[in-house]
Amino acid sequence: MPLYEYYCQHCNGIFEALRPMREASEPFPCPLCDRDGQRIMPTSFAAFTFREGYPRRIPDKGTYWHLGKEVKRPISGPARVGEHPELNPPRPPARKSRGEVEVERDKAQLRRKEGKKMLDSGVRPIKGSPTIR
Ligand SMILES: [Zn+2]
Questions:
Q1: Would you say 74 and 65 are in contact if contact means Cβ atoms under 8 Å apart?
Q2: Residues forming a β-bridge with 15
């Protein structure tokens, strides 16, 4: 199958796709935002650059897209499904109920007890090992 170039207007990106020749002129979903990219004719070549493996048209604004919204950086690290740290700021931690506070206290007590047991038995705690939560 031949390789064709497509241009995504939404994220101003250029991408390539291997397609059968008869489908070449049909739009192809952009790998970054999943919107339809239009075929670029070999005659309409435009300058582009690469950013993080994806070709981008120059000038590259340096932004990314998340579900149709422009963001400054791609998601890195943990994020809730369908949310972006720039668009969905971290929620304030929910206030703990009295029950939860008691559970936390019990756990802390258990942790201390376990730690003491370990020391008494001569086992050295391993740094960075998972602790009881
Ligand atoms: Zn796109």
A1: no
A2: 6
The model's pTM: 0.37
The backbone torsions φ and ψ at residue 124, rounded to the nearest 5 degrees and listed phi first, read: -85, 130
Give ion ligand 1 contacts, CB < 5 A: 8, 10-11, 30, 32-33
Q: How far is the CA of 94 from the centre of ligand 1 (A)?
A: 36
Question: Residue 128: what pLDDT?
Answer: 65
Which parts of the chain register pLDDT below 70?
42-47, 58-59, 125-133
pLDDT of amino acid 88: 82
Q: Phi first, then psi: what are they for 116, rounded to 5°?
A: -65, -45
Domain boundaries, the chain: 3-71, 96-126+129-133
What separation in Å is there between the alpha carbon of 101 and the centre of ligand 1? Answer: 47
